[in-house]
């Protein structure tokens, strides 16, 4: 039997974890006597070992290797080497959230714990993204405001020009109806003035149309920027889904200096008489 305290340390990850292990391995009469790769982990502590055998217990023959005291020092050394090579501490790692599981934490519990972390990071990401887009959105809103004011001014000028044109044309018609000469200089001047005002009215109508188009284009640009923001936010947040993320496995390895052997000693593993007979029958059939 081998018992040891394993101390896992990782300063970068702020990890400082200890665990006790108790292993049981059969002794045979081969060259090494003990092969720790065949060891089984026991869910007990050294303090729980019985000091005396049960009533009517019988003992199997002691393997020759187990009777040699020097072998225990060799098995102790081999035990440390085996622990160093095999007893790594595996942790789940979420690259999206930059978190690792706690020692002994199951994958399910790790995913549940990450839900709160994911919500907090999504909120922070949304705030940072809004800050990134804020100058562009503010500039577009200001351009929309100015374009809207310009459009309103153009409409007011157009309406005023159309009214002046109507008045000029009406005055010319009224003069004709009052019996003045149709081709008098005054009538011709009024007609020319009305024509010029009509031209300005047409131009200002075109200006109003152009101003309205500018407002509409800026509104479309603003909508496109909103869509771009929503798409980028959704893309970033989709990477922060603990329920769907494939975690990496990070292994924290032991240092030999952090392996404290508590015990390497001969131990008897109890078996029922029926199990012993069954094992003997199987062994004879195999041979």
List the helices and strands and how they pair.
Layout: E1 2-10, E2 15-24, E3 40-41, H1 69-86, E4 89-94, E5 99-100, H2 107-177, H3 185-238, E6 248-252, E7 259-264, H4 273-286
Antiparallel strand pairs: 1-2, 1-7, 2-3, 4-5, 4-6
Provide a brief overview of the structure.
This protein has 287 residues and is of the alpha+beta class. It is built from 4 helices and 7 strands. It has 2 domains: 2-88 and 253-286, no CATH class; 108-238.
Protein traits:
287 residues, alpha+beta, 4-stranded antiparallel beta sheet, 3-stranded antiparallel beta sheet, 4 helices, rod-shaped
Description:
A four-stranded antiparallel beta sheet has the order 3-2-1-7, with helices on one face. The longest helix has 71 residues, at 107-177. It has 287 residues and is α+β, with helices and mostly antiparallel strands. The protein folds into two domains: 2-88 and 253-286, no CATH class; 108-238. The two termini are 28 Å apart. The model has no long low-confidence stretch (mean pLDDT 74). The chain is 55% helix and 14% strand.
User: Biggest β-sheet: count, sense, barrel?
Assistant: 4 strands, antiparallel
Physical arrangement of strands within the biggest beta sheet: 3-2-1-7
Strand content: 5-15%
Helix content: 40-55%
Regions with little confidence, pLDDT below 50 for 5+ residues: none
Taken together, the total number of domains comes to 2
Shape category: rod-shaped
Mean pLDDT: 74
DSSP strand tally: 7
Total helical elements: 4
**Which structural class fits the helix and strand makeup?**
alpha+beta
**Cα distance, first to last residue?**
28 Å
User: What is the radius of gyration?
Assistant: 46 Å
- What is the H/E order? EEEHEEHHEEH
